[in-house]
User: Which sequence fits this backbone?
RNA sequence: GUCCCCAUCGUCUAGCCUGGCCUAGGACACCGCCCUUUCAAGGCGACGACGCGGGUUCAAAUCCCGCUGGGGACGCCA
């Protein structure tokens, strides 16, 4: 059994930032790669920030991305006895002392011995800091709660963490925490600090760049596999040119030493591209399942449509989607009874000289056949194109606008077939009537 | 301000540790072409980078130094 033990230890802030998600993912992938344990620990030692719902966000985010944990979640707020025991021991050994503040009360500080602090980071390499820069720091706050740098180490020791994988903002903390390991006489784990994720302006990725939290990306219609693959590749590459990597593959190839030292900008276009790749890799039933919440959100109850028919519609859009959330709007003329005509499309296509007559011929031809298949439609429309001696585009576009309301849709045969003979005829007639009106008033 | 870190196409990156195979490879985006009934998807192609200056060396994207630029950390927050 592997002795590799890692942990993800967020403070419950109410949202899981994309950068934190990547840190969690790297921890998790590393644990799975090594056959070790992934532990979830909630660092809720700040009373003012305590929030139950915020913990749920962490859990939901992790689960949504497909991460599971072997131990926890542990809550630091429930482990005060352990921290106090350690504080008292340090006090007894005179490695720590009480610092009285007339206003805030008494806290406990750890004595920082002089010297040069040094450790080898798996990502950053050798790092060193003069301890003269580290003041005796607080390990127990006046409110009785442990301070971050203390609770973190006590827990990492207690939980036998072998590798501490966290954001680059913690490198100085690591030097501070090394003092605690020393005072405790505890073995020191390996450290790996992750670079930052930046926005397109090169500043740390934040709300003004777009979605920041994992759950926000989910709401926008990114697939868990797509987002996970994308953020994993922000700062890590498996060493060859492959980019679409299913989770199992990423786990197999993951290596902490392949993580880049420099910060990475999040490129939204590439995320969309990658998400589209994953959408296309799904089976139609799987895609429907992913689409269901978005359909409901838009007011379309999925069970309102025959499953087989819905599969046809979804199949038509699978090649077109970048984000799941785009679907309801794009497929609106399949999902609702009526058609909403875009003014521009009507003006550009339907109001053309001869279009009305053309549509009437199409209606007549369709009414003459009871068969409504790809073959018959192709023969029928092809014949009209031929007798009218016009390109097929000249005939497909008016139909498209008439039955969808716009100039963009899946293939015209497929669109007609899935819409069905009745609906197609009804919409064509409606368009003809409308065209008459427009012509009449102009 | 003090300390620390980083630096290859616009962006994500391969290559750097173990100099030569790099006239620097791939991907996204952009542009063009093909496919084509629209939009996509797909295929093909074009554009596009080793931040600058010194070294070391027969040879540097790769090693060293400086500069410039960018970023981070400096709480009884985590």
Assistant:
């Amino acid at each position: 059994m592997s002795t590799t033990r890692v942990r993800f230890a967020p403070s419950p802030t109410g949202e899981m930032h994309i950068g934190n998600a990547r840190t969690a993912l790297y921890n998790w992938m590393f644990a799975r790669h090594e056959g070790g344990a992934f532990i979830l620990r909630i660092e809720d030692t700040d009373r003012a920030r305590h929030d139950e719902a915020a913990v749920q966000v962490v859990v939901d985010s992790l689960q949504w991305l497909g991460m599971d944990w072997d131990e926890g979640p542990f809550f630091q707020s429930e482990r005060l006895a352990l921290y106090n025991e350690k504080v008292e021991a340090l006090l007894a050994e005179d490695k720590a002392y009480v610092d009285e503040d007339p206003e805030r009360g008494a806290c406990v500080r750890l004595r920082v011995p002089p010297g040069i602090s040094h450790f080898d980071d798996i990502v950053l390499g050798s790092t060193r800091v003069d301890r003269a820069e580290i003041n005796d720091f607080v390990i127990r706050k006046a409110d009785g709660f442990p301070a971050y740098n203390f609770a973190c180490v006590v827990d990492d020791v207690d939980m036998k963490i072998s590798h501490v994988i966290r954001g680059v903002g913690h490198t100085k903390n690591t030097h501070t925490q090394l003092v605690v390991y020393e005072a405790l006489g505890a073995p020191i784990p390996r450290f790996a600090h992750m670079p930052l994720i930046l926005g397109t302006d090169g500043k740390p990725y934040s709300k003004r760049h777009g979605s920041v939290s994992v759950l926000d990306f989910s709401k926008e219609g990114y697939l868990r596999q797509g987002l996970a693959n994308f953020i994993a590749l922000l700062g890590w590459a498996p060493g060859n040119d492959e980019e679409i990597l299913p989770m199992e593959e990423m786990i197999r190839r993951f290596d902490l030493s392949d993580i880049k030292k420099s910060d990475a900008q999040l490129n939204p276009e590439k995320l969309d591209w990658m998400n589209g790749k994953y959408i296309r890799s799904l089976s139609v039933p799987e895609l429907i399942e992913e689409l269901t919440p978005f359909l409901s959100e838009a007011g379309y109850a999925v069970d309102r449509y025959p499953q087989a028919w819905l599969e046809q519609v979804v199949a038509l859009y699978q090649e077109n989607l970048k984000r799941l959330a785009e679907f309801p709007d794009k497929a609106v003329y399949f999902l609702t009874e009526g058609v909403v005509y875009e003014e521009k499309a009507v003006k550009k296509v339907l109001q053309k000289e001869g279009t009305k007559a053309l549509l009437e011929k199409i209606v007549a031809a369709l009414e003459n056949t009871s068969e409504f298949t790809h073959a018959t439609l192709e023969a029928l429309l092809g014949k009209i194109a031929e007798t009218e001696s016009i390109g097929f585009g000249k005939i497909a576009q008016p139909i498209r606008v008439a039955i969808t309301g716009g100039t963009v849709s899946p293939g015209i045969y497929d669109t007609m077939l899935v819409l069905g003979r009745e609906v197609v005829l009804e919409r064509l007639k409606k368009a003809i009537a409308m065209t008459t009106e427009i012509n009449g008033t102009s």
